[in-house]
Prior knowledge:
Elements: E1 11-12, E2 30-39, E3 42-50, E4 56-63, E5 71-72, E6 92-100, E7 105-114, E8 117-125, E9 132-138, E10 142-147, E11 156-162, E12 173-178, E13 185-191, E14 204-206, E15 211-213, E16 216-227, E17 230-240, E18 248-251, H1 262-265, E19 273-281, E20 284-291, E21 295-302, H2 303-311
Antiparallel strand pairs: 1-21, 2-3, 3-4, 4-5, 6-7, 7-8, 8-9, 10-11, 11-12, 12-13, 14-16, 15-16, 16-17, 17-18, 19-20, 20-21
Amino acid sequence: MANRHFRTxxxxxxxxxxxxxxxxxxxxxxxxxxxxxxxxxxxLLLVRVEDRRGISHLTxxxxxxxxxxxxxxxxxxxxxSPKSHPEExxxxxxxxxxxxxxxxxxxxxxxxxxxxxxxxxLATTTDFRSFTRLGPVMPPEDKDAALFPVRFGGRWAMLHxxxxxxxxxxxxxxxxxxxxxxxxxxxRVLIPxxxxxxxxxxxxxxxxPPLETxxxxxxxxxxxxxxxxxxxxxxxxxxLDRSDPTRVLRRSADWIFGPSEEYELKGDVxxxxxxxxxxxxxxxxxxxxxxxxxxxxxxxxxxxELVDFITSSPAG
Length: 316
């Protein structure tokens, strides 16, 4: 139920969750944190699937309307390959999907869980059946990465979240650049975690890939608030300059979406809403998010309302 004192931007699908382990054609413990893309008019989710060992892999689910009638690959679509890619020894997780028009392929940024900790890896595909791994692009510990779909000044740009050291001010969203998608540099903190009692204090990270609008690049990011009952994952918005992503134009003060339903509050990791993908068609936005690290859920919004909200938010 919406709180009448706050503006509701994202509306949950009334038949959530839309995908659970019970829907899977092979044994799985949980399914969550799906990247999303519109491919030839079909909604495609690249879903994180955790097996009963605790190791994750990725599997494709397709739907004509992006809501129901999901056709799930009968076996894992992309498995960890620790023999050829030792950084994947403990699984692959949390994909984000970006169409690179210049290269005519999809880029998949994902977390590879190595013996030294999680790191950012990159793969490309044209059909979501075969994949070309480019390997690690950031050392551990790092995750929550996504590419922009275009170059800036001849360079690709990637948002990601290195894990901070114990003495630092927190875990922040960083921006890095590359001439070739393999070698990355010019690293900088883009959006710092706030301090104190804020909903996004100490630890934040990118959620789905950046979405281009006439007003700038719209970002949806998560903030982690540590409470006596555990961590709460909530979502807020930011806006970057369209031609210069190093410039943060706006950042929401309030969180706009957080766990409140039973399927978000109960599960393997309670109190989590964690989107890795969204799809915009005209003014309609569909947000696909992991609920309590257990299932995939759907929320919808109007792009015009998201942009209106962020452009009226405080300067970044």
